[in-house]
Design goal:
Elements: H1 3-20, H2 25-34, H3 39-46, H4 50-58, H5 68-81, E1 121-126, E2 133-136, H6 160-164, H7 188-217, H8 222-231, H9 233-244, E3 273-274, E4 279-281, E5 285-286, E6 293-300, H10 303-307, E7 312-313, E8 318-321, E9 330-337, E10 359-362, H11 363-372, E11 384-394, H12 399-414, H13 418-433, H14 447-470, E12 475-479, E13 483-487, E14 503-505, E15 515-520
Parallel strand pairs: 3-10
Antiparallel strand pairs: 1-2, 4-12, 5-15, 6-13, 6-14, 6-15, 7-11, 8-11, 9-10, 9-11, 12-13
Helix pairs in contact: 3-4, 7-8, 7-9, 7-12, 8-13, 9-13, 11-14, 12-13
């Protein structure tokens, strides 16, 4: 038998031994958590997806090739580093019998591996675990099967002498109790809910662990720790994103082929998508006009975090002519000709745009325009849709990440933890700003997502402005993703606070900030 054939045989034997001694799903989860490894790290090392690791840990499926052998080797190594805890022996237990002269199997031995990934060979001898002769060696030079997960040797067959020798009478075997009725297996929704809750607890713990690490590294210097946390915000939030995807239903494309309209012509030029960013100022109010009308500048908390709840395309964008690409279950970008906005006292839902004619907008903007043209609002006519680039979409794609960061943010606010609060803000804002064509985040390139999330933030702010208008307040200004200036008693319209569903007074160096006064313009 050639060396290559021997290696193939030993590889099959090793996989068979590893599979025979494969740990149960609960132990797989325990070993990964004991080693402080994320599902993303294990998946990358094993060569499978994060959802596959989640399935193996939940017992939904058993490890399968091609990643099985690497996964079982990892479990073997982790089991040696983090053995399962054992309870103390009872005090009245009988003393263990004296060990026999023959040495027992040595489970502390470890396989020696060559740099090319093959096991080291030497003088053949009985394996220190199972006793079967093998040419492969342990790290100390003794014979050991690769993987060191050997089956115990089968008991020797009884000899003729043993048959003729009378054996003492054995007591009758105790009666076997009937097996209990097995508990019903959890349903798929129950397993998914449990997995989602565990995933959120794990990912929230990653945030606290990162803050603790940087505070220790900075020896308690809060400013230095925060600077380090902001620097690592992008890789950290991408790890959180991958962790929250472990129990997700949808597989996404991180680097899809994109139409030219979503590519920047150069580093300094933008693509062709109009996000509908607002820069509205009521024509009847001015800081320079005489008068003392009270105005409050409000801040919508965590605007980009809230905007993660939006319809995002999952797969490759497909081209459609006319309104064929418009569907409640699809998302992307659309070329439209908008209709005239005839309400100067309200912000234009298309934002601060002066050039007439067709333009490319996101699905978030189109959904807002279609709602406002419907019978509930009746504020404008529906736009004309010329063409679209869309794919199947879901509104919950980033929901697990949003909920995780929101929970960590609320906890930081309750504990007055400024460091964690700024770290979380940096994570979600950089996650959105770098998911397009950015040199700072090479793990994903979805400019369509970035534009849609930006537009969703503007659409959410427009909804708050309209709510204030409907309650009798005048909208004096609306700018960016989170700034809304109104007259009147705003606390009767919006809850005050720092939560994602609340509003707070916005203070800045600008003259029109906090609580200020304006005058009416005489026309």
């Amino acid at each position: 038998m050639s060396d290559e054939q021997m290696d193939s045989v030993e590889a099959l034997l090793e996989e068979a031994r590893l599979t025979a001694r494969m740990s149960d799903p609960a132990e797989r989860l325990r070993l990964r958590q004991a080693a402080d490894l994320s599902r993303a790290q294990v998946a990358k090392a094993v060569g499978v997806g994060r959802q596959t690791i989640a399935n193996w840990e939940e017992g939904t499926t058993d490890p399968q090739p091609p990643g099985r052998i690497r996964y079982l080797r990892l479990l073997e190594g982790l089991a040696q580093i983090h053995p399962a805890p054992t309870g103390p022996a009872p005090e009245d237990a009988a003393p263990a019998p004296a060990a026999s002269a023959a040495p027992g199997p040595d489970f502390s031995a470890q396989t020696a591996w060559r740099p090319d990934g093959l096991a080291v060979q030497g003088e053949p001898g009985p394996c220190v675990r199972c006793g079967v002769v093998t040419p492969y060696q342990a790290t100390d030079g003794r014979p050991l099967h690769p993987g060191a997960m050997c089956q115990p040797p089968a008991p020797a067959a009884p000899t003729a002498e043993a048959h003729t020798t009378s054996a003492p009478a054995q007591p009758p075997a105790p009666a076997v109790a009937p097996s209990p009725v097995p508990a019903p297996l959890p349903t798929r929704p129950q397993r998914r809910a449990k997995s989602a809750a565990r995933a959120q607890a794990e990912t929230t713990g990653l945030v606290a662990r990162a803050v603790h690490e940087e505070l220790e590294r900075a020896e308690g210097d809060a400013d230095a720790a925060l600077k380090a946390l902001i620097k690592r915000a992008i890789p950290d939030v991408m790890r959180l994103f991958e962790e929250t995807r472990a129990t997700a239903r949808y597989q996404y494309t991180a680097y899809p082929s994109l139409p030219d309209i979503l590519h920047k012509p150069s580093k300094r030029e933008s693509d062709q998508i109009w996000e509908a960013r607002p820069n509205f100022h009521h024509p009847d109010y001015s800081l320079k006009a005489p008068g003392a009308i009270a105005v409050t500048a409000l801040d919508a908390n965590a605007a980009y975090l809230t905007a993660l709840k939006c319809w995002l395309p999952i797969g490759k964008l497909e081209h459609h002519v006319g309104d064929d690409g418009v569907d409640p279950k699809r998302s992307g970008v659309h070329l439209i000709t908008p209709t005239e906005w005839r309400h100067p006292h309200l912000p234009d839902p298309l934002g601060d745009r002066e050039e007439p004619g067709p333009l490319w907008v996101t699905n978030a903007t189109l959904r807002l325009l279609m709602r406002l043209s419907g019978p509930k609002y009746g504020l404008l006519d529906a736009p004309v849709i010329h063409e679209s680039w869309t794919s199947g979409a879901t509104e919950n794609f980033l929901d697990a990440l949003r909920k995780t960061l929101t929970a960590a943010r609320e906890k930081a606010i309750a504990e007055d933890d400024t460091i964690t609060l700024e770290y979380i803000k940096s994570m979600y804002s950089k996650f959105v700003s770098t998911m397009g064509e950015s040199i700072h985040n090479r793990e994903i390139q979805r400019p369509d997502w970035m534009h849609i999330i930006h537009s969703q933030a503007y659409a959410n702010l427009w909804g708050k402005a309209y709510k204030a208008h409907q309650a009798g307040l005048d909208v004096v200004a609306m700018m960016g993703t989170d700034e809304l200036h109104v007259t009147g008693d705003w606390r009767q319209v919006f809850p005050e606070g720092r939560g994602v569903a609340q509003m707070k007074i916005k203070y800045s160096d600008a003259k029109a900030s906090g609580e200020y006064t304006v005058g009416k313009v005489t026309r």
